[in-house]
Amino acid sequence: MSDESTDQTRRQLLAITTGLGLAGTAVASIPFVLSMQPSARARALGAPVEVDISKLEAGQRLVFEWRGKPVWIVNRTKKMLDTLPGMAGKLVDPNSDASEQPSYAQNEWRSIKPDILVLVGICTHLGCSPLAKFVEGAASGLGRDWPGGFFCPCHGSFFDLAGRVYKDVPAPTNLVVPPHAYVSDTRIIVGLSPDEVEKNKNA
Ligand code: FES
Fold first, then answer.
1. Which atom of ligand 1 is nearest to the CA of 171?
2. pTM of the full predicted structure?
């Protein structure tokens, strides 16, 4: 058996065993890091959430809540971005044609700026929150050929570093990119498009 197929088999076994152990656990506890503005009630009702990313270093992920769901902002390194072009053959929807994202994020990075990825952190299978698995290779526990990405342990779905789903896993589509816009170089608002932010500025 080749190294590649061994790694793939390892991932499939991991998916099955973790699926057995964790099925039904739904969303795990999530470290929400945002300040309390806007109020929790307003957020639950869907108010946009503005996030400061000035301290988000390359290779790190920020987690917060919007509309009762975890949202992630990942500052991808060049090395992480370099993995994306070679992924197409492993993915269900490499161009995100059947997946949900705003038109301004339907590109090779699924983001406005290449390095900054914004995703709803909910698996498109049954709604668990996948784990960030940014460590590549054998140290990840997902096989020597693992390039970094996200892993949903509930039933074993894998996503790349743009939230695109692998073939032959339960999740049907890529992770969702929510509407978002930059209000400055270091502040992102989730819940509004760039056009809506412009309109509000001019109102
Ligand atoms: S919820 Fe089933 S694989 Fe993620």
1. 3
2. 0.83
